[in-house]
């Protein structure tokens, strides 16, 4: 199966592109897209918007945001929602 993918891409592309396409093909087979677990959450939209503003994706510099607090208050959920929004 992989050799068929390799043969089809090798005719018109560089080797680096071939390797990337094979890796993407294998990744799609091994890691299917999981449904979003951050849809329809209640009470975190303002926090997600604030973190999204802090990240400032329109800027070309590197941003690092820390989210801290007590366990169980939704830090990972907020981070996951922001990631899904900018992905």
TrEMBL record:
Coiled coil: none annotated. One of its GO terms (molecular function) is ADP binding. Signal peptide: none annotated. GO terms for biological process: defense response. It comes from the Eukaryota. This is TMV resistance protein N-like. Residues 57-85 form the NB-ARC domain. PANTHER family: DISEASE RESISTANCE PROTEIN CHL1, LEUCINE-RICH REPEAT-CONTAINING PROTEIN. It holds the Pfam family NB-ARC.
């Amino acid at each position: 199966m992989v050799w068929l993918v390799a043969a089809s891409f090798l005719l018109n592309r560089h080797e680096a592109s071939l390797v990337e396409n094979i890796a993407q093909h294998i990744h799609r087979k091994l890691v299917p897209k999981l449904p979003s677990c951050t849809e329809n959450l209640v009470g975190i939209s303002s926090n997600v918007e604030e973190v999204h503003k802090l990240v400032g994706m329109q800027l070309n510099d590197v941003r690092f945001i820390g989210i801290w607090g007590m366990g169980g208050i939704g830090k990972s959920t907020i981070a996951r929602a922001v990631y899904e929004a900018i992905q």
